[in-house]
Specification:
Radius of gyration: 21 Å
Number of helices: 11
Largest sheet: 8 strands, mixed
CATH class of the largest domain: Alpha Beta
Helix content: 25-40%
Structural class: alpha+beta
Number of domains: 2
Length: about 350
């Protein structure tokens, strides 16, 4: 599909259907993540099918974008959801302004060449933190993106460029002590990625959320389905902490691009072993794995000091860099698309209250 941009440069959008071709293309971007992988799109296919687009301009590849698309049959209307895309960064040390310019150009190609002709609303969750890419929020708003009334996404990134011992020394002393205590206690870490590993993690995850009385939209099943379509080093790793044959905790790690992402975590409380410190050791083993793979960053995948002060205290023990992301934005769409999106969100809120 071709569209003429305002500045007169011919753009090209190529749809990719082959999973291996898509993931091979994705491997060329350092800001790639599981959320833009073919497997993740398939894992969420029950909610909406995904399309995968190569965004080119003037014969050069700008980036890639995977969208989950919900349409109204028979109408030019619906919602396209882009989570942590388009991916555009091709090197670890890319200049932030160049990345931002490339991101803006890729979005323009996507909007004018694919979203707008279909009358869709594009919901974008940006993966470029304002702290590292100053002005990204302003750029999005100038392009016509409207911020949604949601809390900004915040996370903590641990720099993996120093050596392992230096990384460990940068942790808070109490955090390091807990890693050592778990090791001396005899807590073992098993690493897998098959369905059985996910099943064992699911038990821990469900048990923890029932114990704490929390509600979460994150589903282990989504990642387990995605795993079936991931290949090689793109496959997630499930770390399980055990003691004398009992599972104490688990962690699910995704390592793509130059970043390892802590996707999911869970711990179990044992009366006979109340202070096993399995979480500390699990994270340390995950960091070791990321370092061994040559990754530059370990992402602790979200912090919220107000809603989850305990989790925030734990994650600040890594003494990483806390970053704020722009959040969610909507762009364009026909009147029917906008009305359908509002109606869908209203029903979703009603169902949430009833649950």
């Amino acid at each position: 599909m071709f569209s003429e941009l305002e500045r007169g440069t011919l753009s090209e959008i190529i749809a990719i259907e082959d999973p291996e071709e898509w993931d091979d293309l994705l491997a060329g971007f350092q800001d790639a993540s599981i959320y833009q992988s073919f497997g993740y799109g398939v894992g969420r296919a029950q909610e909406a099918p995904s399309v995968r687009l190569v965004l080119n301009e003037g014969g050069a590849r700008l980036g890639l974008a995977q969208l989950r698309v919900k349409t109204i049959p028979g109408f030019r209307a619906g919602l396209a959801h882009c989570y942590f895309g388009p991916v555009v960064r091709t090197s670890q040390d890319a200049d932030p302004q160049e990345v931002l310019d490339r991101y803006q150009a890729a979005l323009r190609v996507l909007l004018e060449g694919w979203v707008q002709p279909r009358g869709l609303v594009l919901r974008l969750v940006s993966h470029l933190p304002e702290d590292l890419y100053p002005g990204v929020t302003r750029v999005l708003e100038e392009m016509g993106f409207c911020p949604l009334e949601q809390r900004p996404y915040r996370t903590i990134l641990v720099d993996l460029k120093p050596g392992l011992e230096e990384i460990k020394k940068s942790f808070r002393p109490r955090f390091r002590t807990k890693i050592n205590k778990a090791t001396k206690l005899g807590v073992r870490i098993e690493v897998g990625g098959d369905l059985e590993a996910f099943r064992r993690f699911q038990v821990l995850y469900d048990e923890m959320y029932a114990r704490k009385g929390f509600h979460t939209k994150v589903r282990v099943e989504t990642f387990a389905r995605a795993q079936s379509f991931l290949r090689g080093k793109d496959r997630m790793m499930v770390f399980l902490a055990t003691y004398e044959g009992k599972d104490l905790g688990g962690l699910v790690l995704s390592a793509m691009g130059d970043t390892g992402i802590y996707l999911l975590g869970a711990t179990r409380i044992l009366e006979e072993l109340p202070n096993h410190n399995a979480s500390n050791l699990l994270h340390w083993r995950a960091i070791e794995e990321c370092k061994n793979r040559g990754l530059s960053v370990y992402d602790l995948c979200g912090v919220d000091p107000e809603k989850d002060p305990g989790g925030y205290r734990f994650k600040t023990g890594f003494r990483g860099r806390e970053l704020t992301y722009p959040g969610s934005f909507d762009w364009g769409g026909s009147l029917l698309s906008k009305a359908a999106v509002r109606a869908g969100e209203f029903l979703h809120r009603i169902r949430g209250k009833e649950a």
